[in-house]
Write a structure and sequence with these properties.
By secondary structure, the protein is mainly α. It has one domain. It is about 60% helix and about 0% strand. The protein is built from eleven helices and no strands.
Length: about 270
Amino acid sequence: MAPELILVASIFFFFVLLEVVLTGFFRKEGQTKGDGVFEVISSATLILFTQPLVLAMGAGVAALLMPEWQGVLKDWSFLAVFGLFLIFDDMTQYWWHRLSHTVPWLYKLHRPHHNAEYLSIRVVYRNNFFYYLLMPGIWFSGALIYFGGAWVYAVYIVIKMSVIYGAHSDVRWDAPLYRTAWLSPVMWVVERTISTPATHSAHHGKHADDGVTNYKGNYGNLLFFWDVLFGTAKITRRYPEKMGVENLPPTTVGEQFFWPIIRAKDVPNIH
């Protein structure tokens, strides 16, 4: 296994262990019988099948359309190539995520991520199969790898997933830092740069009138800066009391994972 994959897996299981010890990884308030099943299926499918496939297809499309560009990035500086991944992977994921809360059929692919009435490392990969299959950032990452950015991507993906895992975990590592007076200026920068438990949990909040929830914002994955830049940021340093979606009919595990092939009920409006 590649070193970066070992690192990513180790960081993931570090957060799993933290939740086992501190917040109850296996028993989350509001979870249903189908939640754990869906989370295992969606996570395993993405890691073992969808992401490797899409990266390979992205590289394949690049090879077909621009074969003369193979390896062109090998002589670029690390920071320049890292910046390309931030733009073509992380920023495009911001817009993909934002569109998924705007376009009804895309929301059907993304709703499973919010269907859980809890925030946890468990929900990181909780999405419809086609949500990741169509995600532009993974396709672009495959192309950038073909263009010679493979070793930079190895560093980038470790950093990105570390932030995403930390932002989704209900072990709120940012809370004590907010309470430390001399760290306040540092945290002012941090919370406007990367996703944190406070800013990301606001996106998962269930009730828009609770003063914290920002369901139509706080879309950032690695960089929260995209929300600041594009006007969708809400920073309160607080956490919603309830997570999930409201005013939508129930769904099934099959529909969450494989809509539109499997349909239970039509969802009339996005949250």
